[in-house]
Amino acid sequence: MAAYAFVVAMCGTTLPTPLYRMYQRELGFSSFLVTVIFAVYAVGVIVALLLLGQLSDSVGRRPVLLAGLVLSALSALSFLFERGLPELFAGRVLSGLSAGLFTGTATAAVVELAPRRWAGSATLIATAANMGGLGSGPLLAGLIAQYAPDPLHQVFIVDLALVAAAVVGVLLIPETVRDRSGTFTRPRRLHVPPSVRPAFVPAAMAGFAGFATLGLFTSVAPSFLSEVVGVSEPAVSGTVVFTVFAASTAGQLLMGRVGVRRALPWGCVILVAGMALIASALLTASLPLLVVGAVAAGVGQGLSFRAGVTDVGRHSPPERRAEITSALFVVLYVAISIPVVGVGIMAVTLGLRQSGLIFSGCVALLAATTAVLLWARPVRRDA
């Protein structure tokens, strides 16, 4: 039930991805403004993580998860009653706040609720729920936008129904935080203890490159497909974005066989190959090549993401696990927002194709550098 709630909350954050082109036609804004709308979401995530990342450690997991679902429902209502840009911005901010509450809290809750026999797979369940939810949003919205008569409204009605079921599920799960004050304490700065930093730093480095790629696909992928590749069907754009996250989940499954020490650098290497394929797809306007590049990039991101979260989680004190996980996600959501805004700024003067090529080169360089550093200083077995 906790994993289902995680999926639903993350699904709501990416639902607008295949709909941005429709909003562009309806409201007449540019691809740059699409990236700004997306970045506003990331700002909401980061604010929630910074101010409330440790909240569930003191008041409990369930109250924070319920608050995140309420914010997700308010976001869906903002899009449902959209009349212009103010509602779009409000919906994205609320969605970001919801995701910020959920990422660290739900990851910790799923790990803590897992039966002892599932202990080795608990982190996989949590990260797969995260990535699966993020990937399900564009697929669901793309299919509804393609075949439903009123896509800009019906998709959010479906989302509200999913959120309502998730609320019931969270109300039924047990609380896993035993020592809690039950009151809201003054937010404190997220802090990573020195004993956790040897695991945290490489996880953050590898995660930055992977999440920058996810940010590109969840913000301007429909614009790339329409303006560069010549494919404008929302079902296709939603499926392409879903492919990245499905591949990420596959990479997370593969990490169990590869191991943390090898998954972090090799995930970066595979991500480099994926970015090379994506750049080739932009040069040749090839949809199949773009899909293959999305799969490769997703697998690489999934490998390094699960390896990083696993290593950070196993070296974190239980009473501070949500706080440290939230600190990691702050880094990842900086990666998912700032580079994408850079793409939007470049697109105004250079065009989407050129900005996409520059972005691919920068991410590939960062991932390659991270792989070299990880091989020079491998992940420690013990903190």
UniProtKB/TrEMBL annotation:
Residues 1-379 form the Major facilitator superfamily (MFS) profile domain. InterPro entries: MFS, MFS_dom, MFS_trans_sf, MFS_Transporters, Sugar_transporter_CS. It is found in: Cell membrane. The lineage of its organism: Bacteria, Bacillati, Actinomycetota, Actinomycetes, Kitasatosporales. The keyword Transmembrane applies. Its main location: membrane. This is MFS transporter. PANTHER family: MAJOR FACILITATOR SUPERFAMILY MFS_1, RESISTANCE PROTEIN MDTM, PUTATIVE-RELATED-RELATED. It comes from Streptomyces noboritoensis. Keywords: Cell membrane, Membrane, Transmembrane, Transmembrane helix, Transport. The chain crosses the membrane at residues 32-52, 64-81, 93-111, 154-174, 195-217, 237-256, 263-283, 289-309, 330-351, 357-376. It is a multi-pass membrane protein.
